[in-house]
Amino acid sequence: MVEVRRGDELGETYRRRITEVYVRAFADDFVAFSRDTGTLADAFEHMLLLDRFHVALVDGEPAGLASLTEGDETLFAPRWRELRHHLGLARGLLALVVIRRWFMRPSAGARPGLAEIGFVATEPGHQGRGVGTALLRHLLALPGYREYVLEDIKDTNEPALGLYAKLGFTVYRRQKVRLARRAGFTELVSMKLVQEPARPG
Questions:
Q1: What is the distance between the alpha carbons of residues 164 and 188, in angstroms, rounded to a whole number?
Q2: Alpha helices, DSSP H only, in the chain?
Q3: What is the pLDDT of residues 181-199, one digit of tens each?
């Protein structure tokens, strides 16, 4: 049974475990800072805004996560002192610049009422067990939203693209990325979903 809770509802005692799920899932994107996921978790633990992350729990343990923002909301509040302490001067500065430039800027079409879903991840031991589906269904059932976007998914991430399509998302943009083949993919795919308003009962 998968239960989905918002990170701030779980509280600070879950912060480290939520961060570990995050860094393990996206470690390949952070190799310039460190190849050690423990070091990355040390560096990033302070900066996650838990109210923007929704966490899938299996037997009380985080098994996956996804973020949801709208408008100019951001997911992180990085502190230079923390990044420098855990990553060193040069890599800490690089991390601060990259996080602010790539992970804290709203997407071009961001606006109130449009929900942007990001950082969808499932722990390896729970993949194929409905965790991602439970996360997405939870987000799509939240009140206050009709339109959703998933930005910049690697075209090689076929399981994720298949899941999103199964839930009704359609591709609205494909973007070629310079030197992407070196990173093992060709395009970044963005998808959207507009839900029909509920009919009055």
A1: 14
A2: 7-10, 15-25, 37-44, 80-87, 89-98, 131-140, 158-166
A3: 666 778 999 999 998 775 5
